[in-house]
Amino acid sequence: MNKSNDNNWTLEYYLWDHDLLNDCSMDYNNARYSNAVFNAMRYIESKARTKAGANPSDNGQALFEKVFSQDGGLLNIPFCKSSSEKRGFVDILKGMYGFHRNPKSHHNTEQISKEKAFKIICYLDYISQVIDTAQPRN
Q: What's the rounded Cα separation, in Å, for the pair 32 and 101?
């Protein structure tokens, strides 16, 4: 990717999840990059909650633990075969939430760059695809 060409940072071209795109593109396209990342994280949180049939009051890191934990989580990611892979997915979700969503919720944060927002949102698009594969735990 040629970093000097601003057109390369277009979400519409790269994202697979159209609902994710709808939730964050207005802020992203209007240079409100922190808001775009915040909305993308809220989308992932909502998607996990809905897919698992969790309570609307379940949120944040506790939600990800409840939904995907290796010991009694509501959903299973089929291609996570080992307990460390399952733990890794939960840790990624909790880390993304704590690092990228919580600061915007709890205090004013410095605006992030378009490039950083693009990279975070594209990774969340991948996370969304992983959640799509999730199946109810037997």
A: 14
Write out residues in the chain with pLDDT < 70, as ranges: 1-7, 101-110
Q: What domain range includes position 125?
A: 15-136
Measured CA to CA, the distance from residue 130 to residue 114 in angstroms comes to: 24
Domain count along the chain: 1
Q: Tokens in use for 19?
A: 């609902």
This prediction's pTM? 0.87
Whole-number pLDDT of residue 104: 55
Is residue 10 in some structural domain? no
CA dihedral of 54, 59, 60, 65, whole degrees rounded to 10: -30
| Position 68 in a domain | yes
How high is the pLDDT of residue 89? 95
